[in-house]
Specification:
Helix content is about 50%, strand content about 10%. The protein is mainly alpha-helical. The protein folds into four domains: about 55 residues; about 80 residues; about 180 residues, Orthogonal Bundle (hpI Integrase, Chain A); about 55 residues. The radius of gyration is 43 Å and the shape is flat. The relative contact order is 0.05.
Length: about 475
Amino acid sequence: MIQVYLVKRFKRKRQRNGKREYRWALRWEGPDGWRCESTGTADRTQAEAVHSAKWEELNHPTPEPDPVPQPAAESVKVSWDECKEALKRAMEADNLRPSYVKEALLTFGAFRGMFPEAKTPADVTPAMAQEYKQRRVAEGISPWTVKGNLAMLKAAFGKRLGQELGLLTSNPFANVKAPRCDDPEVRIVTTAESNALVEWLSKRWNDWQLPIVYLEVLQSTGWRATETASIREKDLLGEGNIRVIAENCKTRRHKYGWLPPDLYADLKACAAGGWAFGRFPDELRRRHILVRKRPRDAAMVKDFTPRRFVQWLQDELAHFRKGREGEQFTLHDFRRTAITDLQMAGVSEKETSVMVGATPEVIRKHYEKLEAMTIAKRAVERRLAATLGATDPPRVTATLGADCRHPTAPSFARPLRAGVKQPLTGRRARRKMILRNWLRRVSEWLAATLEMWCPERGCGFDSRALRLRATCANDASHYL
């Protein structure tokens, strides 16, 4: 039970007779602390009536009537086609790449075809999103591909259609976890494989140099296949310098490279129609007619575009791989090979990142495959060179003997040739330096003392002191 008290609340204003005016007020202790409410009257009878009503309200509250339920307005569900069109406009407004927009719309349409029971995107449930992931994995799709598809659909249903356009109220892919992906195996194209491909292309197309020049440029720059094919005539900057404009790069930044003079001249010879490899369609038609005797195939060759050129090279590489044993490689593996060669040549990660257009983290994870044995040999050569004080690192051709100490030991330095005295390093060198400094100070103190007591023999003592100091320094090695 809540007690309600009736109290006087005096005002600052006074009456004519000097007394202060007051009003009756109600005070009670509620769940949030003490409360106070004015009755608005100075009459006690009226104040007591208000007091009784307040007490009754606090101790016997009247239940509020249940609100009349309002009929819920039926939400208008947007169709699949309307959502797809709105999604396309939203992505184009963000200036996304046309290839990404096309791929996102294809993924959106493929999801719609997988679940025909969902009449609209609003009918898609989290269970359907999980089922989509499970079906894709069961079909044998790569985990990396499934991860990319889930990221696209999550952005489409959540960011685009939900947050930006307001067409959906929930994102069914919000809690769908992408599959775990193993680090990809970096495939390196060996010199023998590269030479075999060049020989096969020369034999197949009667010593056609244009595709071979493209492969050499691809290996020299480490750019992506489509980016290399997108070089324009105006991007040949002279003196071996080339570039790819940001419009044709995945990273939306200019890329610059350099080619040897002979390769740069061959690349200029392939230019036509504003493209560095613009002579490709005309030369392909000529070889279809003269070499392969297929005029119908020559009539089907279209004008040059970087994508068509890369697609033709990929088809030729597929023909080259038929009937060959061993692990297969793609055009993108030439990029991995070039990046690995740059790293093994001693180029820093920052310089490699700027040249090829990939972050150092992506380079370590997807592109480089360093040779551990070569790195270990080079590191030991540098350490031996620094220890020996040599200008050029020695070339260690034989394996170090069994008498060598562990590489982590501070004094890992052994003579490379018999009879060569090696300087002390590490703790022994510090001990010898401390002992020599102490002996030098002792000899200087002895010289000053004898100079004071025997000033007439000062000159003779200087030579003896020097001999004493040299003898002590030479004999210090006996105590180490």
